[in-house]
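Quick one: sequence plus LXEULUCI SMILES, need structure tokens.
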Amino acid sequence: MLIVFEGIDGSGKTTLSNRVARELRQAGLRVRHVREDGKLASPVSEGLRLFTKNPLHLALTPMAELLLYSARETQLLEEVTRPALAEYEVVIADRFLYTAEVLARWGRGLPEHAVRPVVDACTRGLRPERVFLIDVDPAIARARRRISKLLAPDTGVPSSRKGLAGAGMQTRLRAGYRALAAESPEQWTLIENTDVTLEALVTQLTQEVLRMVRGGEPGTPSSTPRAPTPPRSADEARARFLERVDRWMEEEPGLAAWFLSGLEGADIDERRERLATRCPELIAHGLSGLTDASAWDLRARLEQAAPVQVLGSLKALAAESPQAWALRERWEQRAPEAVAASLDGLGSEQAWAMRERLHGRFPEPVVTSLTRLGDARAWVLRERWLSQRGGQAALDQEKVARIACRSIRGVDDAPAWDWRERAWEVAPDAVLRTLEGLDSERAWALREQHAGRASRLVLESLRGLNNPRAWALRESFGVSCEEALESFEGMDGATAWRLRQALADTWPAATVKSMGPLASSARGQELISRLLTDHPRDFALLRQAARVAAHPGQERRHATA
Ligand SMILES: Nc1ncnc2c1ncn2[C@@H]1O[C@H](COP(=O)(O)OP(=O)(O)OP(=O)(O)O)[C@@H](O)[C@H]1O
Ligand SMILES: Cc1cn([C@H]2C[C@H](O)[C@@H](COP(=O)(O)O)O2)c(=O)[nH]c1=O
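Reply:
Sure thing.
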């Protein structure tokens, strides 16, 4: 019997399929998992996976990508799954050809008639007995993945082509999986994994497979919960958001801590306090960009437990406050790399003096802190670092090229373009990230050439740019890439509002975020109320609406639209 786990990235397929396999073995069944612990059992398939993930292959077309993903699954099917079906009672797969189909059709927009024949030729009639669609709100799946990344020690995970199309890709893929499940309800079971513990799901799925193995009818699929009544205003959204956070507080405190990130108000501070001992790294990380008294107080109390995250939270502070400098000085000896990284983009004498002290022992974090600095002093440090690595030729090494690109982000002079040219051969995605805010002809040419294959990077680089070329790219790619909206956060004017209105129902949360302070204007409030009514299940929207609500301890900001 073939059991497949499908779902978007971070939905829980790997964790659940492994735990269920273990439980079934303990129940006495002979079980083969063809992707045990996340590793595909066929080395050829694993090689194809690495190939498709490699950002060097930025230029892959949708059809070529479909063929490669199909090849990966077909090889696994022929080499491992089919033989295992003859030998084991239960064979478990973490993804199947549905993944290739959903990515091609819903992710890249290829028509069904171009995709289905490819997939059918690969499966040759093999149909899994059951497909468990692990279904999660993409904002929650993303948060869970980012939490585990933040808490895991740096394992040197290579950069990935995944994600270059933008966070909205997961919304499209989720819609695709749900459409396939609706087409074959007798084969697919939708498993809701948003407000449920892993333990409960492992038990439910194990029981379901045992029932099938014993010849029983499949259990009744859990019914989709009714849509909640929509909140009518940002203030009501904030209350709903906090209710949701409170439910996670016990069962999944990491998620509660994560979603409080960057929010202000006494009601938020009180919850941060409650989570600070259990999730110090996540709470410290979430102080990023906050400058109110309670944020500084919490930083001081968390610096022993989570120094790296506390120092990291200083990066987003444009102002060089005395509290930030006191913190850096306290940790300069004990966490020098995190201190160096926290100097990101700072150009004061104090920042240069600290860089000079740290550069000898920690050149990499110092060099990457030179973002947006194009003056002679910055280039002296950069050139010193590069000559220690072997000079310009070292930019042909991916690791060196990636550090170099982080250093020249937002820098538009001739030496920066020389570095970009060399780095392109080994790290094109990193080069596109360096275009942040650049308005030169070379930057526009690169953007326009690569927007189709790396839309997120290109659109993010438009942040703050208000000219016809920037708007043309936003218009062209906004429907498929929500990062278009974030790139004009806080901008007023007819074009900005027209684009917000046009994209609002595709990307509700990003639309609210893009308003920035304009969200509290009459026009902003009206749009938020409408979106809350029409998208009552969208957690990311609820959070953005909660962010702009009036909150205890602060006057509501007013702006005109
Ligand atoms: N119900 C849940 N409660 C708590 N944590 C969860 C839950 N479901 C998933 N997670 C956590 O979410 C993270 C992502 O899960 P997992 O790696 O299994 O997802 P995945 O679908 O296999 O993702 P990918 O396709 O990216 O490999 C893991 O850290 C996992 O422990
Ligand atoms: C390129 C790309 C892929 N994905 C998704 C859809 C793919 O089929 C899976 C493969 O993931 P795995 O970890 O190798 O099993 O990833 C995506 O979400 N975004 C992308 O850009």
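The chain is about 55% helix and 5% strand. The mean pLDDT is 93.
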